[in-house]
Specification:
The structure holds two protein chains of two kinds. In chain A, the strands form three sheets. A six-stranded parallel sheet of chain A has the order 6-7-8-9-10-11. In chain A, strands 4-3-5 form a three-stranded mixed sheet. A two-stranded parallel sheet of chain A has the order 1-2. In chain A, about 55% of the residues lie in helices and about 10% in strands. In chain A, α18 packs parallel to α19. The longest helix of chain A has about 35 residues. Chain A has 19 helices and eleven strands. By secondary structure, chain B is an alpha/beta fold. Chain B has two domains: about 80 residues, Methionine synthase domain (Methyltransferase, Methionine Synthase (B12-binding Domains), Chain A, domain 1, Orthogonal Bundle), CATH 1.10.1240.10; about 120 residues, Cobalamin-binding domain (Rossmann fold, 3-Layer(aba) Sandwich), CATH 3.40.50. Chain B has nine helices and five strands, in the order ααααβαβαβαβαβα. A five-stranded parallel sheet of chain B has the order 2-1-3-4-5, with helices on both faces. Chain B is elongated. Chain B starts with a helix and ends with a helix. In chain B, about 50% of the residues are buried. Classes of the chains: A alpha/beta, B alpha/beta. Chains A and B meet through β4, α12 and α17 of A and α4, α7 and α8 of B.
Chain lengths: ~425, ~220
């Protein structure tokens, strides 16, 4: 029987408070009464619920029901906004999203969505993006990544307009193609509204059952945004040599806007934790010097901006970032959660234990191909080497529950957490 | 190696793209340098890049930029080559590589293909989201010395396992070595899939292939 079946509102409120306090204690570098466990999953929910990935992406109600069932079965101390990360099909359709392949759109019904690494902005366009970011988005970037924006290439260019020119500049909006595009985008916005409401409704319902939502908002590292979503992997890597100055200038511009947007989004949700998945920071992706020049300063500044706004940055350091630990330690103590994917958590604790809360990091290969006993042993290792030595660890998988993970291995993870750490 | 040749190798290895390309073009187009010799200098430079990568001085950006520089020089040099019969440089071995079914990722695979090519292997890259059947058909037709399976997502674990089992069932498995690679690959996954070895970067892949080819000689 699940918690929600037999507890009243007062009990669930108390349970909510106790769980949330565990997370906040970890952030404040105080060990809570027991090691908290966090849940993040996307397509594993389809495995868990016995439906296809396609259904998970398109059926809001089914996705909400399955995600709730998973929360009630495992009782995590905090859970990611699961619906927002999974039920994305209708809004992808609405904008005719071109940066991804998803079930029914280029991959099979049982496959996850996958990003297409491409050059979405040419190196010659850095200057245009820098001079008029909004115009660049409207006239060039959005029409490239969304079919629904086809026609926006003619959207009025406003910088430079003045006096009567501000009126006559509107003329392109009379063009039938642009008018059609604007109407398409207005329709798409309606679907986005529905999606956001489903997500908010699920988050509220889960909180009412006693389970905090881990993070209210998402962001990204400024360098990663430019690399992944504008220049593409090859473009960005060669820009480190060919377009250093423009790259740095653009990353800084992104930082200013990302901080502003992220703070506004987080404040709107009332949840202080900001999830920041990290893509290009890992050891293998650039030299330490490049990391310290091109990558780290803008993310650090953004995290400081968020901390100043009373928010809690939660970067997810993808892949192995062991060599970065000393550098990323340079952040105010007791203000962040660092989630590690493949970085050795014991090493991370030894370097960062007195600076940040830690989150992670059961290995995907053990979870997907191992036995419950293997999972139990990995949890015990983290408890022995991190939690029992005073580490403020929020136990989780390395980067969410891998899609193919057998449910028995997730049970083993939660059971082991309670068995070894309260 | 004369001074000018040494300079080209240095500039390529130092990522001084502008000067390296200008010099290579001058040597090839104005001074009539032997294109095969210039390509050999490129490989020498790439050896240095590979060593610096292994030593932790260079990372992916340098491999990628070196790759682009070599591609530019190669495009100028290759049409200038006048082959005498039997003059084709001998390849170290044949490698067939692809991203397993269900997975569309190719950044890592492309870098591995390029690094193998530049290190003297004949590489057949059969793309992304490659079905089990395509792998079996391609291996059967191409007869590689090494097969490389690439994958970034966790779903690739099962795709790799299925592919390897199918190659086994087709009676082909004993004819080549098999390596796997990708962001989530570790020893647990290697054991699970039945691969001979795994690697986490392009230089690992080159070293594995070189080691295996040395063993078969």
């Amino acid at each position: 029987m699940s918690t929600a079946d037999h507890k009243g509102p007062a009990d669930t409120k108390a349970a909510y408070d106790a769980r949330w306090q565990r997370i906040l204690d970890c952030v404040a570098l105080k060990q809570p009464d027991r090691m908290p466990v966090a849940m993040y999953a996307t397509f594993w929910l389809a495995t868990y619920g016995g439906i296809s990935n396609r259904e998970l992406m398109y059926d809001y109600e089914k996705t909400k029901e399955i995600a709730e069932r998973a929360v009630l079965e495992f009782e995590p101390d905090a859970v990611a906004p699961l619906v927002a990360g999974a039920a994305l099909g209708p809004i992808f359709d609405a904008v005719d999203y071109k940066q991804l392949r998803w079930p029914g759109h280029g991959v099979g019904d049982h496959q996850p969505y996958q990003y297409l690494d491409r050059e979405y902005m040419k190196a010659e366009e850095y200057t245009d993006l820098l001079r008029d970011p909004t115009g660049f988005y409207l006239n060039r970037y959005l029409p490239r990544i969304f079919g629904a924006f086809e026609g926006f290439e003619q959207f009025p260019v406003l910088p430079g307009a003045f006096y009567f020119r501000c009126i006559t500049a509107l003329r392109p909006l009379a063009h039938p193609e642009l008018r059609k595009a604007v109407l398409r985008v207005l329709d798409a916005a309606q679907e986005v509204e529905r999606f956001m409401n489903h997500s908010a409704q699920w988050n509220k319902r889960i909180a009412s059952l006693g389970f905090p939502i881990m993070n209210g908002s998402n962001s990204g590292a400024p360098y990663d945004i430019v690399a992944d979503y504008f220049r593409g992997a090859t473009g960005m890597m060669t820009d480190l040599y060919r377009h250093k100055d423009k790259l740095l200038e653009t990353v800084d511009m992104m930082r200013v806007n990302l901080s502003k947007m992220t703070i506004a989004n987080a404040k709107a949700t009332g949840n202080p934790i900001v999830f920041i998945p990290i893509h290009w920071g890992p050891d293998a992706f650039m030299s330490q010097k490049q990391f310290e020049t091109f990558w780290w300063p803008s993310l650090r500044q953004m995290m400081l901006d968020l901390i100043d706004a009373d928010l809690i940055p939660m970067p997810l350091w993808e892949a192995d970032c062991t060599k970065r630990l000393e550098t990323i330690k340079d952040i105010p103590a007791g203000k962040c959660i660092y989630w590690f994917e493949r970085t050795d958590m014991v090493k991370a604790y030894e370097v960062l234990g007195d600076v940040v809360a830690l989150r992670g990091n059961l290995s995907p290969s053990t979870l997907t191909t191992g036995t419950p006993a293997d999972v139990d042993a990995e949890v015990k290792h983290l408890v022995d080497k991190v939690w029992n030595r005073g580490g403020n660890l929020i136990l989780d998988t390395a980067f969410g529950i891998p899609d193919e993970t057998p449910v028995r291995n997730i049970r083993a993870m939660y059971d082991a957490a309670r068995k070894y750490a309260g | 190696m004369n001074e000018q040749e040494k300079q080209l190798v240095d500039w390529l290895a130092e990522m001084d793209e502008e000067r390296a390309l200008e010099l290579a073009k001058r040597m090839l187009l104005e001074e009539g340098a032997d294109p095969l010799r210039v390509l050999q200098l490129c490989r020498d430079a790439m050896d240095i890049v590979g060593k610096r990568f292994e030593a932790g001085e260079y990372f992916l950006p340098e491999l990628v930029l070196a790759g682009e520089m070599l591609e530019t020089i190669g495009a100028i040099a290759r049409p200038l080559i006048k082959h005498a019969p039997g003059e084709e440089p001998k390849k170290l071995g044949k490698v067939l590589i692809g991203t397993v079914h269900g997975d569309l990722h190719d950044i890592g695979k492309n870098i591995v293909s390029f690094m193998l090519d530049i290190n003297g292997f004949e590489v057949k890259d059969i793309g992304i989201d490659v079905s089990v059947k395509s792998f079996v058909d391609e291996v059967s037709a191409y007869r590689p010395d090494v097969v490389g399976l690439s994958g970034f997502l966790t779903l690739a674990f099962d795709s790799m396992k299925e592919t390897i089992e199918a190659l086994e069932k087709a009676g082909l498995r004993k004819d080549f070595k098999l390596m796997i690679g990708g962001g989530q690959i570790d020893e647990t996954v290697r054991a699970y899939t039945g691969a001979d070895a795994f690697g986490t970067n392009a230089v690992d892949a080159v070293n594995l292939c070189k080691k295996w080819m040395a063993e078969t000689v």
